[in-house]
Amino acid sequence: MKNSLHLTAIERKQFDALPEDVREGWEITDETLEAHERPEELKMRVLMLDQEEPAMKLFVEKLQSAGSIKNPSELAEHLGDVPPSTLYTIFFTIGTRAMSELIAAFLTVATSDDDLAGVAFLTAIRHELFLSNAEVSPA
Q1: Which of 13, 33, 45, 117 has its CA 20 to 30 A from that of 21?
Q2: What percent of the chain has pLDDT above 70?
Q3: Within 13 Å, how many C-alpha atoms sit on residue 8's CB side?
Q4: Domain ranges of the chain
Q5: How many whole angstroms separate alpha carbon 73 and alpha carbon 58?
């Protein structure tokens, strides 16, 4: 199974600027979807978020204790025991634009396969959000 990243054209340029030994072994899929959420959709998602859920509280505690996170593998280390369903809820809530900002930021500091694995995780979730958004966005 190949390591795959769903990257926009701008993100692809960032990836291509990484050292060859970091890029080696990664397959790039062009991310051509741009079905971003409207501001009112994001507001509704925030209102629906259950901030009292124990897993959500754990997520917030982990982020607060992490301080400054410099790369994706550091983020994964701090959030390792947060349930995946909670992470998906967070990414759904922040939306595709914020996820794209995270991806771009992490691509600029990626130095290892572990870092790129974190970016790949984010790009896969963003791609699924794009697909979902494209299905429900008004024509």
Answers
A1: 33
A2: 83
A3: 17
A4: 3-136
A5: 19
